[in-house]
Amino acid sequence: MENHGLWIDGRWREPPAGRYPVVNPATEEVVGHAPEASPAEVEEAVLAARRAYETWSRSDTRERAAILDRTADLLSERASGVAPLLQAETGATIRVTSTMQLPTAVDRFRRYARGALEPDSIPLPPQPARSGPLAPGGLIGAAALRRPVGVVGCITSYNFPVVNLAGKIAPALAMGNTVVAKPAPQDPLSCLLLGEILQEAGLPDGVFNVVTGSGPAAGEALVASAGVDMISFTGSTAVGKRIAEAGGRTMKRLLLELGGKGAAIVLEDADVRTAVASAGSTWAFHSGQICTAPTRVLAHRSVYADVVEGLRRYAAALEIGDPLRSGTVVGPLISAAQRDRVEAYIAGAREQGARIVTGGTRPDLKPGFYVAPTLVADAAPGATVAQEEIFGPVVVAMPFEDEDEAVAIANGTAYGLHDYVFSADTGRAWRLAARLRSGNVGINTVQRHPETPFGGFKDSGVGRDGGSFGLHAYSELQAVVW
């Protein structure tokens, strides 16, 4: 158990409002205590970032690259100390922690170390201009240049705390911005450690700050602050809409990566085993706590029974339990509140006439916040369980007759983050992808490409990050004309 302070202006700050416990979702024991930041401490962090901005925004890009590269080195070197804390506060399985939680964060710092050196100007062809009332004529040259936005508030989700934060602060710092981070209340301890790691890597004081809190007050203060130029948020659509409304009062730039209700369309010529294994990732990957998961499986009527049976067998083969056991695939959800929320969705599906093929009851595992991998079949497309993001190990299977019906069902929610198409004819799948109102479409895979622009249509968000698009997200375009 550790007692952490706020990280403001390059040093630990004792929180006047005290600390709150962070609980291990598998054991229900306290992992450590995180600081409660009041609006006053949040504003101190913003002022520190504001002061540091003038120097950091004009720093040599090679210096920024070296610091981000060194951060990746230090995070790798400290993995044996950071990983157990990260595992304990998230409840992630050993497999997810060792392959995705820390290694991906290291990769992101490394990627944006290179990104700091990418060209930040786009030369434009000279244009002849006639003389006029404004100025004499001549040959006019111009360039579009990417400039840092300023102070960026980064508010992150609980499923991949360090990965998610690294994906925001690395491109933001590479572009010359300064940052105030506010991690999710459920698991902020590992994120607090990034302050010292970045300082050791050579980051000047005040460029990166971390504030935490058990409720919404710290995040609300960050969004409301006049000293913050941009909010980058990953989390629920409901909270994203409130951030957009509040941030609009001070014309903040916004990057909002919000919820999803991914549809996996399985055409009649698809390889059913591939489709089933891909959809099964909803259960097998961090207990379904991922916004890109294929949580709705839309199968052509001719293969629907085979898909449902394949999913049933897949779910039955998954080991659920202690995330520290090497064979465990499905660990706990982040909290009792989230477990209860997921169970309420399952109960609602029963009430609305859907069929619970497997799962649907609480596993006999104590302690811990567990939900069994659950397959819901024959739900109506408009049913709550088929419309709302559940963020747990629940897959909903529905049949369709033809492509038009599949597209209508897939597009028939408020979300549009990540969909999937499974077909032996990739040209057909490509054409079908164009009809999906989704920011991302996977064809015969749930794998991601790290350089693609990531974000959503509709209620799934605003803006794009990932690869060079992440650098663009944390910059403003300035036209210079001569």
Write the layout of secondary structure elements.
Blueprint: E1 6-8, E2 11-13, E3 19-23, E4 30-35, H1 39-57, H2 61-77, H3 79-90, H4 94-101, H5 103-115, E5 121-129, E6 138-148, E7 151-155, H6 161-174, E8 178-182, H7 189-200, E9 208-210, H8 217-224, E10 230-234, H9 237-248, E11 253-257, E12 263-266, H10 272-279, H11 281-284, E13 296-300, H12 304-316, H13 336-351, E14 355-358, E15 374-377, H14 384-387, E16 394-400, H15 403-410, E17 418-422, H16 426-433, E18 440-443, E19 461-462, H17 467-473, E20 475-481
Parallel strand pairs: 7-8, 7-10, 8-9, 10-11, 12-13, 12-17, 13-16, 15-16, 17-18
Antiparallel strand pairs: 1-2, 3-4, 5-6, 6-20, 11-19, 14-15
Helix pairs in contact: 1-8, 2-5, 2-7, 5-6, 10-12
What can you see in these coordinates?
- The chain is of the alpha/beta class and 482 residues long.
- It folds into two domains: 6-258 and 459-481, Aldehyde Dehydrogenase, Chain A, domain 1 (3-Layer(aba) Sandwich), CATH 3.40.605; 263-451, Aldehyde Dehydrogenase, Chain A, domain 2, CATH 3.40.309.10.
- Helices cover 38% and strands 21% of the residues.
- The protein contains 17 helices and 20 strands.
- It has helices at 39-57, 61-77, 79-90, 94-101, 103-115, 161-174, 189-200, 217-224, 237-248, 272-279, 281-284, 304-316, 336-351, 384-387, 403-410, 426-433, 467-473; strands at residues 6-8, 11-13, 19-23, 30-35, 121-129, 138-148, 151-155, 178-182, 208-210, 230-234, 253-257, 263-266, 296-300, 355-358, 374-377, 394-400, 418-422, 440-443, 461-462, 475-481.
- It has a seven-stranded mixed sheet with strand order 14-15-16-13-12-17-18, with helices on both faces. The protein has a six-stranded mixed sheet with strand order 9-8-7-10-11-19, sandwiched between helices. Strands 5-6-20 form a three-stranded antiparallel sheet.
- α7 links the parallel β8 and β9 (208-210).
- α2 (61-77) crosses α7 (189-200).
- It is globular.
- The mean pLDDT is 97.
